[in-house]
Every structure is written in C-alpha cells, then in structure tokens.
UniProtKB/TrEMBL annotation:
PANTHER family: SLR1406 PROTEIN (PTHR34309). It comes from Gluconacetobacter takamatsuzukensis. It holds the Pfam family HbpS-like. It comes from the Bacteria. This is Heme-binding protein. InterPro entries: GlcG_carb_metab_protein, PduO/GlcC-like, PduO/GlcC-like_sf.
Amino acid sequence: MLVAGAVAGLPAGSAARAAGPAVITTQKLSWEIADQLAAAAVRICAARGWSVTAAVVDPSGHEQAVIKGDTVPLQSLSVSYRKAYTAYAYGMTFDKDTTSALIAAKVTGPPNGALNTIPQVLFVPGGVLLRRADRSVLGGLGVSGAPGGELDEACAVAAVKEVSPRFQ
C-alpha cells in the first residue's frame, strides 16, 4: 500500500513522463567474436616474441573474454582488463580510439591524478576502443605483457584490424 500511496501523490502525468522503454537493448560483441579478438591479440604479440594477456570488456565495462599467454606475469591479467576498461569508458566519452590517444589529449585528468584513483582506470598505452564501421561503440580491448605499453597497443590495434570486419 505504501507504493500505491507514493504513486498516488505524483502530479497527474508525471508517471507517464518518467516511464521510458520497458526493455533496453545494448549492442555488444558475441562471446565468440570477443574470444577471437582476445586470441588474435595474444597470437599477434606471440608472433612478435611477446607473451601477453588480452582482455575484452563489453558495454557494461565487465570482462567478456580473457586470453592469457603462456608465460605472462600475474599482474598482466588485471592490467589488461584496466586498459580495456579505460579505453572503453574514456575513449567513448572523449571520442578517442586508444589509451595512447587519451594520454596525448591529456584526458588523464587534473595534475593531482584524480582520475587514476578511480578503480579500474589505468592511463597506459595498450587499450583500444572497439567500434563498428558506423563508429558505434561495442567495448574495449586491453593488452598487457609486452616490453612496453606501445608494443601492447600495436598488438591490440592489429587484432582489432583483423577481427573488426566481423563486428557487423
């Protein structure tokens, strides 16, 4: 009865204005494509002599696929996720396609590093925003474990180039 009383107290028409669609759909990669993308990044880096971990995040910011190379250090698992998350969350917000582009645009926040205190955020090269051909956003890819973030990012960019035709 409390709910009925609360609704009854709304001005006429407020409930109708507040109501939106009952079901919201979000486009994201299928798990198969997310898995192929992470595997491509690990394979490309391995061909260049580096063992890495690659993580794909979906539009909710959660891990969708993770592939860990055979000899990567433990921290590459969390770092690859954080790069993917940062590329997705901030790349979408500031219209930048890589974590390197975010860094170059000084999107890393105020001099006090406040953005880097947000859990999961890591402004380090190696993250790529995942987009369809129409530039709609599907998630992020992060790679960690090569001897330098720019090398991680090169593998991630190459993997996206290889797999993105399947994003349709």
